[in-house]
Automatic annotation (TrEMBL):
<dbReference type="Pfam" id="PF07883">
    <property type="entry name" value="Cupin_2"/>
</dbReference>
<dbReference type="InterPro" id="IPR011051">
    <property type="entry name" value="RmlC_Cupin_sf"/>
</dbReference>
<dbReference type="Pfam" id="PF12833">
    <property type="entry name" value="HTH_18"/>
</dbReference>
<dbReference type="GO" id="GO:0003700">
    <property type="term" value="F:DNA-binding transcription factor activity"/>
</dbReference>
<keyword id="KW-0238">DNA-binding</keyword>
<dbReference type="InterPro" id="IPR018060">
    <property type="entry name" value="HTH_AraC"/>
</dbReference>
<feature type="domain" description="HTH araC/xylS-type">
    <location>
        <begin position="187"/>
        <end position="285"/>
    </location>
</feature>
<protein>
    <submittedName>
        <fullName>AraC-like DNA-binding protein</fullName>
    </submittedName>
</protein>
<keyword id="KW-0805">Transcription regulation</keyword>
<dbReference type="InterPro" id="IPR009057">
    <property type="entry name" value="Homeodomain-like_sf"/>
</dbReference>
<dbReference type="GO" id="GO:0043565">
    <property type="term" value="F:sequence-specific DNA binding"/>
</dbReference>
<dbReference type="InterPro" id="IPR014710">
    <property type="entry name" value="RmlC-like_jellyroll"/>
</dbReference>
<dbReference type="InterPro" id="IPR018062">
    <property type="entry name" value="HTH_AraC-typ_CS"/>
</dbReference>
<dbReference type="InterPro" id="IPR013096">
    <property type="entry name" value="Cupin_2"/>
</dbReference>
<keyword id="KW-0804">Transcription</keyword>
Amino acid sequence: MRIPLRKELSAPTSSFMALELVEAHFDPNWHFHPHYQIFTVVEGSGTRFIGDDIRHFEAGDTVFLGPNVPHLWRSDRAYFEGNSGLKTHGVVVYFTEDFLGESFFQKPEMHLLRQLLQKSYRGLDIVGSAREYVRQSLNQLSKTDGFEAIIQLLTMLNYLSHSTETTYITSVGYVNTHKVSETERMQKVHEYVMKHFKEELRLNEVAALTNMTEAAFCRYFKSRTNKTFSDFVSEIRVGYACKLLIEEKFSVTQICYESGFNTVSNFNRQFKNLTGKSPLQYQKEYRRAGG
C-alpha cells in the first residue's frame, strides 16, 4: 500500500484545525501538505526532519512551517516497541492563507503577519520566551472554538510577527521538489536509514531500494534533499549522538560507536561541522542551559 507523501487535511466545521495528538509514536511518514502548521512537542523524543534540516528533538520543540514543507518527527526506536509504556504528545494548529477570506492577509494592517507567513516557507524554529508563549497558546487553542479560537490564533500570529525569537530551519533557497509519485521511494530510504544508521550503510543496497544505479541515486537524492546521501546519514548519526550526550549515560567514545561512527576523530569532526561545537562542549552548554 502506498503511503501518501502529500497529506490531505480538512475541517468541515471550522476554518482551521487545532488538535491535541497523543499516540504511541508520532506519524512515521515523511509528508507535506498545503497548510501552514504550528506544532509543539509536549512529550516524546527522536529525530526531526524538516526540508533539508535534520536534528534531534525532544519535549519543547516548537516550529512554524509554511505550506508544502516536507517534515517528519520520527520517534526514537523505543516508541515502536510493544509494551514500552512510552507515548508521544503534541499540539498542532493547521490553517490556510485564505482561512479568513482570500484577501485578508493582503490588507495594509496585515503587513507584519504577511512577512511572517513568507518566512515560514523556510520553516521557523521558535525559541526563548516565544516558545513558552506559543506552547501555552496552542494548548489553549486546542480547547477553544468559535470566534474566540480565531482571536486566539490571530493573537499568536501577531505575537510571532513581532518576535525576534525565531530562526530559519531550512537552508537559503530551499524548495520542495518532491512529487506525490515519489512517496514510496523516499519513504523507503528514510525507513532504511533510520533502522540501520548504527551499522555500515552500503550505497549499493540503498540504491537498490529505489531501483536505481548508485550514480543515479546520488544525483536523485542530492536534487531532492539539497545534500549528499552521506551528509544525510551523518546528520542522522549526529542527531542521535546529541540525544545520547543529553542523557549522559555513556562516554563520548561509547557514543561515537553507538551512533554509527567508525572512529572518534571522524565523529568529533562531523559533530563539530554540523553543530559548531565539540561533543563535550555541546554537553556542557546543555547543562548550563538547565536542560
